[in-house]
């Protein structure tokens, strides 16, 4: 009994500090019954009253004015009736005898060095015994954070909260972490620098901060006015007797983005991979809507688009060839990659330049607190990365290197052409982050990858990517920040072909990309977030020269020419939260492009095929002169409609334009494929996409399911004539035709994020068709009839499953099923001059056999001691467990006058690899 | 513990990760298509045209003749030449030298029995420079087994076309080689054991003549010089061609641009090997159209060409080993030989018998008579030994 009294006394004292909330209202009330008054207020303000009817029957309110204090009104009218009231989160509780208890003191009050709490403490004057008593009653605690200046508090004026979410251990920003205001049903996600921004009305809120793989934390946030809120999250420790801890990823329910896929290298650690190379982009192929023409081939086909319609950025540096060893590996070391985001549906207005998708790869930023290193070896490569602070907590660096030693493998392959081949590749990356203060962040990144391959001693290939970016983020006020960047990217290849000595040649090619870019984010008022900015790119292409190689070669040199172009864009977008259940996004990007001289443009006879024989005139353009100018708006719009606590529907429309493309006459991307600018004759491709999606979270938000449908229509798509060839003449317009492409599909995904068993199941059904049907017979491909694209693989089912047996051992498995890609088969055969010849079907009329693969991997972590110098783990991978001989290609070749059909498989048997990785620190170290 | 070195590839796997298997696609709704093959050469005499129908892929038989068609060759000067069918689907027309001049264009017109009419485009006859030289080099080539490379001779053709109007060439090679039976025929069994009394070596020596089913073409348009040195046939030690004497007749054809384009496409199709960087296959149509039913497709190519020939003989004792036909005598150790003979059935008589110093054995007839392996016992007239 004594205890209860103590509590009540305490509570009384306590409340005086807490009931200081107020709402400024306006209106005229003359002897208004309290009930009616409440209705009026509830109608006009975001507030709710709770009381018993019998208490207030006699109360009437009389007041008028523009800025009435609700608190004063209630004080005046309620106190006389022996009633108390309590403000809490936009709710007013009216009680008899005593105010409501809204909060208990902090669990570890003394340890929290929070001024406001101390203040409360002081006012309350709780004795040590009382405090202990209270603490003993309370376990899961809510920490209270105050934002802004109490004196500036105005409940009607939205406050802008900016902040940064970072890893408590390394100080690295957390990307895609979410901040969620429970009472508002509203949240924000952090960007690549860990920054988030949100605008809300002052008040008290329960706020959850979460990020993949991190412990979720909740705070009671008391917002007075605009201010800063930085949060450090702890890595989640998974207890041996596992406790399921919910963590949120990019919140698919609340975010406006559709068709956004995000993966972090951490989350894919256990996924089985070929040859033991942890490869984030290979895992991307397991996501719905991402296809390749075959395993081990470079490039992606996103939602039925050609591989050259994807933009790959690593820290803003464009990468024009993302493959090592022709596509078996990706040209980014697993040690430098942190995560990637793939935009395949509504692409934010700040991105542009490619029709289908943006792969935004983010590197690790380096540990700001201590030096550390990581690395590993697999049968094919060795890799290592070192990182650490330059100045503790202010700046950090990370450098990585990877190299192959695969020659020994090739020398063991029986095929004489492969045995006499050799291959070598490496890549390097370095990143420096400097954060001198809260308002500025500088990033410097540079990247280099190189490949050399000689095939059967007749073909030699060499290619490299290099690039660098410098970016500066500056925060002007709590409502506005900007990003400026200067970027350089370059791709180079050199090849030589000695298959016949008399026509042996070499060819070198290079594309340079120089870019400046600015992105500004501005949150002027609650519920609006504007982003605007622009970029300017200068392209310099040296398409090179075909030169005779070797003493015997009598090949005529062909000068393919230099190309110059500028591409730029301005954009403006607004994300507008209309209500708690409706968010709109609207953006416009206006892009323009100029093909610059010097250049000689051929004019062709209008009524004849565009071939060299039909050139009737030529025009010369001087250096810097605009040969051809293209421009146009790209509209981006999206809508998110919350259909319930755990579900939402989204709709989006997207237009994109592209000003360069890849010359490729092969089905898979080859290292000799040249990037080419659109020019006088070749018009820029344009794509429109509409998508509709439904998203739902289940099982306490641990399982998320989604369904998206899309329809895409593309114009001015570049296709190549049968037998097209790019090395004999500089005027490429003679080898290609432009037409239309349509793609549509349904994508379903179910994902379980946490727990012993995690992973995803994705299903997609899609089609992609091309129609090249010009006016004249020679402007048609496939007689002007629509045909499936090379990457039209209607049915795709992927599962990725990870099962943790205990903290040290986990099992993972992939299952992949795809419809075989389209192929052109011979339909009839005949003898000509004693040789069997075949006539092929119309383009892509048939399909190669379906693809199925199962992989498993076992991960063994080193011991779990907290204090150790280094931690390592082993990974045993079995790729293609069933050994199914999946067709990579089906082809027909003439053997001694007879046509024989063959099916080629790349990985036609189980491939077992053992790899070993290490890092400094313990199991949990990042 | 000693580690078996063969385990290394087992541990490190994927050494032969990829694989290639035969594959036959399912093609529905096959429609036979008319094929016209033929050319005019600059030599007086018969000009040959073959008319056939195409067939479904993967069958053993490829030739389905189109009989009883009316075939006419026309030139651009208004002359026409009627052809007759001398064997199933094979037609010929006699043309005098006065009608075969460089610069003239020719086409073929075919009316099939079902009343359809087909015609080729005109193709121009272009003069052809002579072959300067044919020679060979001994070469080594890698095979799937690194221990055993392949050896052989690479034939080259040298032609100087400098100053000639023609830009495009094709070479066709017809090779002839001598080979021998494994055993001399001395005894045989046709119910009785008998001695063979014919000339002992009458079945022993053979010559075989075969066209090489490889296409060699070149266009000088992308070359800075018309002085050509072109690698053609590689004769490997994996066949028996080089064992007892070999000769190759090289025929050099001049081609118009259209004919070159056609042959080049066929060559690309023949050489297409698929693999990692396969290209979209070519749909090859020639210069034949169905003029009575324009929607119908037709295949083949009719062209005019000038011909030059040259022959090379190879009679060299090579250092490398040369494969030959292998005979394995049927050994009858379980039974006394003559008892064994009595168990044989009459329908298969006669059996040819191999006598060694110590014993008798049965052997395949092809081991005694090399002509059963495709050649002839008649020495070709051009053979030089």
What topology emerges from the helices and strands here?
The complex is a heterodimer of chains A (926) and B (385).
Chain A: H1 2-18, E1 24-33, H2 34-44, E2 48-50, H3 53-56, E3 60-69, H4 70-78, E4 83-88, E5 91-96, H5 115-124, H6 128-137, E6 143-147, E7 159-167, E8 178-181, E9 186-189, E10 195-200, E11 203-210, E12 217-223, E13 227-233, E14 260-264, H7 280-284, E15 290-291, E16 301-302, E17 310-314, E18 317-318, E19 323-324, E20 329-330, E21 337-343, E22 357-363, E23 372-377, E24 381-391, E25 395-404, H8 407-410, H9 416-419, E26 422-437, E27 440-455, E28 459-477, E29 480-497, E30 505-522, E31 528-542, E32 545-548, E33 558-559, E34 562-579, E35 582-596, E36 599-604, E37 615-621, E38 626-644, E39 647-657, E40 660-663, E41 674-677, E42 686-698, E43 703-720, E44 736-752, E45 757-771, E46 787-788, E47 795-804, E48 809-818, E49 822-823, E50 826-832, E51 835-840, E52 846-847, E53 851-861, E54 870-879, E55 889-895, E56 898-905, E57 911-920
Parallel strand pairs in A: 2-5, 6-12, 7-13, 17-22
Antiparallel strand pairs in A: 1-3, 4-5, 7-10, 8-9, 8-11, 11-12, 14-21, 15-16, 17-18, 19-20, 21-22, 23-24, 23-57, 24-25, 25-26, 26-27, 27-28, 28-29, 29-30, 30-31, 30-32, 31-34, 32-33, 34-35, 35-38, 36-37, 38-39, 39-42, 40-41, 42-43, 43-44, 44-45, 45-46, 45-47, 47-48, 48-53, 49-52, 50-51, 53-54, 54-57, ...
Chain B: H1 7-11, E1 19-22, E2 34-41, E3 45-53, E4 64-65, E5 70-75, E6 80-87, E7 90-95, E8 105-111, E9 117-120, E10 123-124, E11 133-141, E12 150-160, E13 168-180, E14 187-189, E15 193-195, E16 205-211, E17 216-219, E18 227-236, E19 246-255, H2 257-271, E20 288-290, E21 298-305, E22 307-314, H3 337-341, E23 351-355, E24 360-362
């Amino acid at each position: 009994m004594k205890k209860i009294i103590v509590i009540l006394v305490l509570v009384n004292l306590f409340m005086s500090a807490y009931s200081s909330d107020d709402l400024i209202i306006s209106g005229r009330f003359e002897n208004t019954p309290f009930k009616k008054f409440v209705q009026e207020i509830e109608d006009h303000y975001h507030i709710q009253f709770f009381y018993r009817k019998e208490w207030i029957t006699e109360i009437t309110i009389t007041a008028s004015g523009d800025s009435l204090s609700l608190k004063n009104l209630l004080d005046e009218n309620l106190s006389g009736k022996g009633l108390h009231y309590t403000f809490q989160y936009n709710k007013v509780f009216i009680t008899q005898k005593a105010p409501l208890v809204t909060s208990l003191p902090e669990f570890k009050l003394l340890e929290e060095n929070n001024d406001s709490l101390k203040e409360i403490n002081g006012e309350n004057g709780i004795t040590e015994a009382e405090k202990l008593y209270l603490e003993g009653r309370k376990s899961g605690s809510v920490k209270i954070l105050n934002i802004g200046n109490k004196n500036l508090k105005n409940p009607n004026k939205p406050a802008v909260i900016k902040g940064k979410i970072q890893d408590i251990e390394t100080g690295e920003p957390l990307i895609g972490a979410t901040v969620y205001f429970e009472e508002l049903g509203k949240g924000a996600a952090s960007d690549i620098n860990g920054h988030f921004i949100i605008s809300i009305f002052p008040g008290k809120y329960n706020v959850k901060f979460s990020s993949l793989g991190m412990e979720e934390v909740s705070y009671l946030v008391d917002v007075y006015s605009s201010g800063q809120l930085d949060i450090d999250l702890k890595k989640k420790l998974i207890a041996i007797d596992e406790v399921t801890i919910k963590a949120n990823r990019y919140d698919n329910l609340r975010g406006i983005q559709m068709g956004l896929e995000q993966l972090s290298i951490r989350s894919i650690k256990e996924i089985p991979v070929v040859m033991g190379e942890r490869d984030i982009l290979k895992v991307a192929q397991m996501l719905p809507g991402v296809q390749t023409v075959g395993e081990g081939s470079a490039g992606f086909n996103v939602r039925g688009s050609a591989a050259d319609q994807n933009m790959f950025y690593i820290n803003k540096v464009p990468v024009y060839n993302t493959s090592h060893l022709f596509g078996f590996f990706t040209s980014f070391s697993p040690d430098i990659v942190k995560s990637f985001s793939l935009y395949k549906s509504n692409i934010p207005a700040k991105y542009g330049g490619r029709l289908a998708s943006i792969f935004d790869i983010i590197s690790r930023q380096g540990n700001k607190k201590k030096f550390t290193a990581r690395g590993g070896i697999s049968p094919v490569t060795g890799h290592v990365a070192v990182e650490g602070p330059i100045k503790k907590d202010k700046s950090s660096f990370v450098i990585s290197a990877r190299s192959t030693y695969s020659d020994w493998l090739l020398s063991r392959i029986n095929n004489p052409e492969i045995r006499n081949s050799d291959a070598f590749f490496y890549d390097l990356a370095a990143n420096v982050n400097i954060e001198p203060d809260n308002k500025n962040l500088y990033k410097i990144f540079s990247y280099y990858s190189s490949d050399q391959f000689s095939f059967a001693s007749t073909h030699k290939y060499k290619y490299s990517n290099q690039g660098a970016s410098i970016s500066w983020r500056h925060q002007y006020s709590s409502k506005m920040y900007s990003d400026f960047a200067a970027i350089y990217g370059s791709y180079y290849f050199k090849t030589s072909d000695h298959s016949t000595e008399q026509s042996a040649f070499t060819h070198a090619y290079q594309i340079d990309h120089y870019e400046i870019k600015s992105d500004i984010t501005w949150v002027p008022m609650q519920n609006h977030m504007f982003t605007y900015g622009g970029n300017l790119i200068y392209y310099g292409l040296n398409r090179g020269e075909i030169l005779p190689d070797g003493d015997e070669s009598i090949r005529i040199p062909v000068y393919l020419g230099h190309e110059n172009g500028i591409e730029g864009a301005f954009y403006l977008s607004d994300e507008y939260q209309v209500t708690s259940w409706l968010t709109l996004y609207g953006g416009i990007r206006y892009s323009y492009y100029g093909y610059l001289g010097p250049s000689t443009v051929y004019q062709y006879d209008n009524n004849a095929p565009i071939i060299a024989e039909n050139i009737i005139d030529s025009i010369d353009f001087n250096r810097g002169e605009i040969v051809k100018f293209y421009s146009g708006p790209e509209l981006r719009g999206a809508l998110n409609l919350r259909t319930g606590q755990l579900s939402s529907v989204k709709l989006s429309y997207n237009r994109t334009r592209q000003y360069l493309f890849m010359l490729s006459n092969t089905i898979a991307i080859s290292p000799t494929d040249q990037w080419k600018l659109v020019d006088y004759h070749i018009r820029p491709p344009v794509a429109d996409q509409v998508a509709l999606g439904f998203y739902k979270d289940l099982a306490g938000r641990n399982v998320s399911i989604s369904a998206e449908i899309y329809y895409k229509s593309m114009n001015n798509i570049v296709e190549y004539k049968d037998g097209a060839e790019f090395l004999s003449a500089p005027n490429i317009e003679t080898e290609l035709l432009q037409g239309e492409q349509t793609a549509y599909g349904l994508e379903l995904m179910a994902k379980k994020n946490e727990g012993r068993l995690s992973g995803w199941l994705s299903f997609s059904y899609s089609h992609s068709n091309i129609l090249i049907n010009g006016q004249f017979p020679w402007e048609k491909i496939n007689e002007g009839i629509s045909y499936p694209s090379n990457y039209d693989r209607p049915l795709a089912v992927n599962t990725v499953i990870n099962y943790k047996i205990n903290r040290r051992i986990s099992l993972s498995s992939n299952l992949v099923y795809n419809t075989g890609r389209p192929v052109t088969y011979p339909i009839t055969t005949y003898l000509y001059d004693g040789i069997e010849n075949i006539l092929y079907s119309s383009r892509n009329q048939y399909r190669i056999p379906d693809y199925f693969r199962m992989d498993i991997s076992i991960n063994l972590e080193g011991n779990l001691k907290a204090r150790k110098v280094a931690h390592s783990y082993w990974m045993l991978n079995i790729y293609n467990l069933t050994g199914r001989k999946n067709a990579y290609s089906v082809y027909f070749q003439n053997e001694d006058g007879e046509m024989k059909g063959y099916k080629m498989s790349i990985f036609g048997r189980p491939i077992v690899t053992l790899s070993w990785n290490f890092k400094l620190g313990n199991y949990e170290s990042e | 513990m000693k580690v078996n070195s063969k385990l290394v590839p087992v541990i490190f796997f994927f050494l032969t990760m990829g694989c290639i298997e035969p594959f036959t696609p399912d093609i529905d709704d096959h429609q036979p298509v008319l094929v016209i093959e033929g050319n005019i050469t600059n030599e007086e005499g018969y000009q040959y045209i073959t008319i056939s129908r195409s067939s479904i892929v993967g069958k053993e038989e490829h030739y389905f003749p189109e009989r009883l068609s009316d075939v006419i060759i026309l030139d651009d000067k208004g002359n026409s030449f009627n052809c007759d069918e001398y064997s199933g689907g094979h037609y010929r027309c006699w043309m005098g030298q006065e009608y075969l001049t460089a610069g003239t264009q020719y086409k073929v017109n075919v009316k099939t029995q079902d009343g359809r009419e087909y015609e080729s485009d005109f193709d121009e006859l272009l003069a052809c420079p002579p072959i300067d030289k044919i020679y060979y080099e001994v070469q080594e080539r890698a095979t799937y087994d690194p221990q055993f490379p392949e050896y052989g001779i690479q034939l080259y053709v040298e032609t100087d076309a400098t100053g000639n109007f023609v830009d495009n060439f094709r070479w066709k090679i017809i090779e002839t080689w001598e080979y021998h039976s494994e055993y001399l025929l001395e005894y045989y069994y046709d119910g009785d054991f008998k001695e063979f009394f014919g000339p002992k070596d009458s079945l022993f020596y053979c010559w075989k003549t075969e066209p090489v089913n490889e296409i060699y073409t070149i266009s000088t348009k992308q070359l800075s010089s018309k002085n050509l040195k072109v690698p053609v046939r590689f004769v490997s030690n994996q066949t028996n061609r080089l064992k007892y004497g070999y000769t190759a007749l090289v025929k050099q054809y001049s081609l118009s641009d259209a004919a070159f384009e056609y042959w080049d496409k066929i060559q690309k199709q023949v050489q297409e090997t698929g693999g990692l960087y396969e290209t979209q296959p070519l749909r090859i149509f020639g210069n034949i159209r169905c003029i009575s039913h324009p929607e119908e497709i037709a295949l083949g190519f009719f062209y005019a060409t000038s011909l030059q020939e040259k022959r090379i003989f190879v009679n060299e004792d090579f250092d490398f080993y040369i494969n030959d036909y292998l005979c394995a005598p049927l050994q009858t150790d379980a039974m006394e030989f003559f008892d064994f003979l009595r168990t044989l059935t009459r329908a298969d008589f006669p059996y040819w018998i191999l006598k060694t110093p110590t014993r008798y054995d049965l052997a395949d007839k092809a081991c005694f008579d090399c002509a059963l392996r495709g050649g002839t016992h008649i020495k070709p007239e051009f053979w030089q030994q």
